[in-house]
Design a protein that fits this description.
The mean pLDDT is 96. The protein has an eight-stranded parallel β-sheet. Strands 1-12-13 form a three-stranded mixed β-sheet. The radius of gyration is 19 Å and the shape is globular. Strand 2 and strand 3 form a beta hairpin. It is α/β, with parallel strands linked by helices and 349 residues long. The structure holds flavin mononucleotide (FMN). Flavin mononucleotide binds next to helix 1, strand 5, strand 7 and helix 12. One of its GO terms (cellular component) is cytoplasm. Homooctamer. Dimer of tetramers.
C-alpha cells in the first residue's frame, strides 16, 4: 500500500477520544460575564490573513487516489465554511509530477480560500518555490518530524542542515511560512532557534492526539520502538514553553484537539489559531462531508457560547482568562522556569 494511504488508515484506526493534557487545564468559573452571545467575535488574524474562525484544518494528505478524494472533500468543506486548510506534504509531487493533481484538487474546489502547501524540513528554497507554485498556495508549512523519520522504516537518517534550509526559505520565499511539528510539540529552545533564523510563525503541534511514532511502529515488521509512541511535549506544555515568544512571533497550536473546549483552552494559552487533523479526518471518514461541515459550524457556535461563559468578547481577550493547571503541568513549568501566571490570576491545582 502507498505510504500516505497507510498513514490515513492507521491514523483513523488509532484515533480515539483519549484523555490528554487539555484535561489538565481548567477554567475558573465566574458568575458574572457582562457579555452577550451576539457581541462575541470569534475571528482571528495572523500573517496578514483574517479568518472567520480561530481554528483550521491541518496538513494531512495528497499523493494517492484516496488522498485526492480526501483533499477534494477538504476543499469543499473549506469553501463552505471559510476555514483555512493545508495539504499534506507535497514532497511526493515534487519527485513525481504526475501526483500534482492530488493536491491541486483542494485549490480547484476552493479557488479563493487560504490554503497552505506543506513540505518536509531539509528541502531547498527551489523545492519550496515549486511547492507553492503547484496550486498557488497562500503560504507554506515546513514540517519538522525527527521522531517519525527515525521510527519510519524508510525514513531519513541524516538531520544536518534543517535550520539552514528553513532560514533560506523564510528569507527568500516571498509568501508566509509556518514551521510546524507533527504531534511531538516544541520546547522554548526550539522556538528560540527558529526565531533566530527569521521564522515568524510556528505551529507547536504537540503530543496528545495523532502519534506518528505509533503509526510508524505499526508499519514496522517488528514494533521494537513502541517505547517512543508517547514521545514529545503535549500541546498545553508546548504553549506554556512558547509564552515568552508570543509577542515576537505568531504561535499556532495543534495536536490532540477533540472538541471546541480544547480550542478555547489553546487560545487562552496564547495560540492565535488552532489546527485540527485527526479529529477532522475521523469525522470525515466516519460520518462524511455534510456532517464534517456541520461539526465545524457547531464548533463556531460553541466557541461563541464559551467566550460568553468566560466573559470575553474577542479571541485576543482569551489570554486574560483565569486558569488552573494540574500539579503535573505546574511541576513542568517550575522545573523549566516558566511563569504560567503571566496573563491572569493563574494558579495550580
Ligand atoms: C493522516 C495524517 C497525515 C498527516 N500528514 C502530514 C503531513 O503530510 N505534513 C504535516 O506537516 N503534518 C501531517 N500530519 C500531522 C498533522 O498536521 C498534525 O500536526 C498532527 O496530526 C497532530 O494533530 P492531531 O492530533 O489533531 O491529529 C498528518 C496527520 C494525519 C492524521
Amino acid at each position: 500500500m502507498n505510504r500516505k494511504d497507510e498513514h490515513i488508515s492507521l491514523a483513523k484506526a488509532f484515533h480515539k477520544e483519549k484523555s490528554n493534557d487539555f484535561d489538565q487545564l481548567r477554567f475558573i468559573h465566574h458568575s458574572f460575564s457582562e457579555t452577550a452571545l451576539d457581541e462575541v467575535d470569534i475571528t482571528t488574524a495572523f500573517l496578514g490573513f483574517s479568518f472567520k474562525q480561530p481554528f483550521y484544518i491541518n496538513a494531512m494528505t495528497g499523493g494517492s487516489k484516496r488522498a485526492k478524494d480526501i483533499n477534494q472533500q477538504i476543499g469543499i468543506i473549506a469553501k463552505e465554511t471559510g476555514i483555512m486548510t493545508a495539504t499534506g506534504s507535497v514532497n511526493a509531487a515534487l519527485k513525481q509530477p504526475e501526483l500534482a493533481d492530488t493536491y491541486q484538487i483542494m485549490r480547484k474546489e476552493n479557488p479563493n480560500g487560504i490554503i497552505f502547501a506543506n513540505i518536509g524540513a531539509g528541502l531547498s528554497l527551489e523545492e519550496a518555490k515549486r511547492a507553492v507554485e503547484l496550486f498557488h498556495a497562500d503560504g507554506l508549512q515546513i514540517h519538522v518530524n525527527l521522531p517519525q523519520e527515525l521510527v519510519m522504516p524508510e525514513g531519513d537518517r541524516d538531520f544536518h542542515g534543517w535550520l539552514d534550509t528553513i532560514e533560506e526559505i523564510v528569507t527568500s520565499l516571498g509568501v508566509p511560512v509556518i514551521v510546524k511539528e507533527v504531534g511531538f510539540g516544541m520546547s522554548s529552545e526550539t522556538i528560540a532557534q527558529l526565531l533566530e533564523r527569521g521564522v515568524q510563525a510556528v505551529d507547536v503541534s504537540g503530543q496528545g492526539g495523532t502519534s506518528f511514532t505509533q503509526i510508524e511502529n505499526a508499519r514496522r515488521q517488528k514494533r521494537e520502538l513502541s517505547f517512543l509512541n508517547d514521545w514529545g511535549q503535549s500541546t498545553v506544555i508546548s504553549l506554556l514553553e512558547s509564552q515568552t515568544f508570543q509577542k515576537d512571533c505568531t504561535i499556532l497550536a495543534s495536536g490532540g484537539v477533540r472538541q471546541s473546549l480544547d480550542i478555547v483552552k489553546a487560545l487562552s494559552l496564547g495560540a492565535k489559531s488552532v489546527g485540527i487533523a485527526g479529529t477532522i479526518l475521523n469525522q470525515l471518514m466516519t460520518h462524511g462531508l455534510d456532517e464534517t461541515i456541520m461539526l465545524i459550524q457547531q464548533w463556531e457556535n460553541e466557541l461563541k457560547m464559551l467566550y460568553t461563559l468566560l466573559g470575553k468578547k474577542t479571541t485576543a481577550e482569551l489570554v486574560t482568562t483565569d486558569i488552573i493547571l494540574s500539579n503535573e503541568i505546574s511541576h513542568w513549568c517550575e522545573s523549566r522556569g516558566i511563569s504560567y501566571q503571566t496573563f491572569a490570576k493563574r494558579s495550580q491545582y
